[in-house]
Amino acid sequence: MGAKSGKQFLQRLDSTPREVWYGGQRITGGISSHPAFQGVAKSIAALYDMQLRPELKEVMTYESPTTHEPVGTSFMQPRTMDDLAKRTAMMSAWANYSGGMMGRTADYLNSSMMAMAAAADFFDKDGRDYASNVRNYYEHVRENDLLLTHTLINPQVNRGVGPSKQADPFIAARVVEKTGEGVVIRGARMLATLPIADEIMVFPSTVIRSGQDDMPYSVAFALPVSARGLKFICRESFASESAYDHPLASRFDEQDAVVVFDDVVVPWERVFILEDPEKANRVSEATDAIVFMAHQATVREASKAEFMAGLATLVAETIGADQFPQVQEKVSEILLIAETMKAFIRASEGNASVSRWGLMTPDYVPINSARNLWPKIAPTMASMLKLLGASGLMAIPPEGILESPARPDLDRYYQAKLADGEERVRLFKLAWDAAGSSFGGRQDLYERFFFGDPVRMASAYYGWYNKEPYKERVKELLHRKD
Ligand SMILES: Cc1cc2nc3c(=O)[nH]c(=O)nc-3n(C[C@H](O)[C@H](O)[C@H](O)COP(=O)(O)OP(=O)(O)OC[C@H]3O[C@@H](n4cnc5c(N)ncnc54)[C@H](O)[C@@H]3O)c2cc1C
User: Fold this and answer.
1) Are 242 and 319 in contact (CB under 8 A)?
2) Of the four listed, 154, 214, 231, 315, which is most buried by Cβ atoms within 10 Å?
3) CATH code at 319?
4) Whether the Cβ atoms of residue 280 and residue 218 lie closer than 8 Å to each other
């Protein structure tokens, strides 16, 4: 099949049965036309269509090593600096489409799978050929251009103890039994963004460590979303049918769902790690999956920061506030964030080297630093936009006003230095959707948490970073004789 079109994505989406609950109703029929999903499904379809556009095809696809058909560039296992640059160009093109507002475009988990496949020997254990499972799964996803979601975190019942010490040890998804067919999983995982994916990867967290007690929870596998007993329970949708009122939410609300496993059978060929806390703890770093996922994330984040800088500049200029130094300072803060993220990308790519798995791999020091800094600086962008827009962010009547008797008031009182009333409201609705609406609030939470709890991430970063050379320089100065 190779790189798919938007139409093929939508057809597969609607023809794949899945148990998705929205409030009191299980969604039946074509999920791509459900109000909660129609906008984001259309946006994902547009991303897939980009792969086939003649002027973009060179960047968006490469030749499959097995079928020689074009397949998505994010599946490419980079061997050279040019390969890495091509991956970045592809990821930027997708990120720019949504202003960086879609965190779970397919390239995120494609990057993870392609890295794990290159490092598949990591998975071998106990006579079972998990390495081949990983390689075969990667090829299956690549050749069918599947869209993946993933889930890492156990339900938030009692964070004071691990999953095995909860009052009910079957709350967190775990192995119940092993049969000839596969491994039976019961319990739940806290969140999976994008329940309209084709498949779900169930993996250990990159941040939370498992101990020996966590054996039945220390698993990694992948399943089609149609697997019997697999259930997605959605949050309230932030999507809107009006692109004027909610330019972002109407297009890019990816939706987040709790994932329930009612004795789901994972076929043996889809099992990657089984009851192995040590492997579960190391999988992301040992395979470099974390490096390539964080590389993709940093590219998206840079794109988002550029979009937010453009938005902040337009807001300031539109109301004639751009001349004030404190306004310029606020826009500059966002520009600095954009440049910081781009510098991390350049540094990681500039210092890339061929890993022990044979891939041209971005330097993890800048990319891990980006991963840790972003949750701290990303919220600043929304804060700056709010400070710039001020009450203008509330002078945003619903679209109906445009066709109402009050329209002359909109034309007169909502106009701005550089925009008529309709355009000013359009711009400020976009700013509100990015910074303050339900969609904007979810964006804020996402950027703070999507790679894991930033507090524990910072603690891990402290332990991981080689601080010795810096300490040595201080000690040398302390004891300098002259
Ligand atoms: C919008 C959004 C989308 C997401 N999408 C996905 C997805 O697609 N797939 C996926 O797998 N995950 C997803 N996540 C979940 C994300 O991985 C988690 O939010 C993150 O790992 C933090 O875990 P938690 O939310 O369970 O927070 P918790 O671990 O419950 O933390 C809650 C608070 O308690 C503190 N805390 C808890 N335990 C400890 C401890 N042991 N030591 C110190 N402090 C502690 C934390 O610092 C935090 O302040 C998403 C999250 C969000 C917000």
Assistant:
1) no
2) 315
3) 1.20.140.10
4) yes
Which token pair is 37?
């999903």
Interior angle at CA 429, CA 425 and CA 430, nearest 5: 120
Is residue 1, in this structure, part of any structural domain at all?
no
pLDDT tens per residue across span 268-319: 999 999 999 999 999 999 999 999 999 999 999 999 999 999 999 999 999 9
CA of 449 to the centre of ligand 1 (A): 6
Task: Using most ligand atoms within 8 A of CB, pick from 283, 450, 451, 457 the residue to mutate for ligand 1.
Answer: 450
For residue 143, give both structure tokens: 């050749």
Percent of the chain with pLDDT over 90: 96
217 alpha carbon – ligand 1 mean position (Å): 17
Which tokens go with 463?
A: 């332990």
Q: Are residues 238 and 339 in the same domain?
A: no
Burial tier of 408 (Cβ tally within 10 Å: 0-12, 13-18, 19+): exposed
Q: Is the C-beta atom of 152 inside 6 A of ligand 1? A: yes
Beta strands in 225-349 (DSSP E): 230-234, 256-267, 271-273
- Helix (H/G/I), strand (E/B), else coil: 41: helix
Q: Measured in angstroms, how far is the CA atom of residue 151 from the centroid of ligand 1?
A: 11
**466 DSSP assignment:** -
Could you tell me if 248 and 293 lie in one domain?
no
Structure tokens at 244: 């004027």
Q: How far apart are the first and last CA of the chain?
A: 71
Q: How far apart are CA 146 and CA 198, in angstroms?
A: 6
Whether residue 160 has its Cβ less than 6 Å from ligand 1: no
Segments forming the whole domain that contains residue 308:
288-478
Residue 213, SS3 per DSSP: helix
List pLDDT tens digits, range 42-54.
999 999 999 999 9
Question: Left (φ > 0), alpha (ψ -120 to 50) or beta: where does 129 sit?
Answer: beta
Please say whether the dihedral angle defined by the alpha carbons of residues 111, 359, 289 and 301, taken in this order, is positive or negative.
Answer: negative
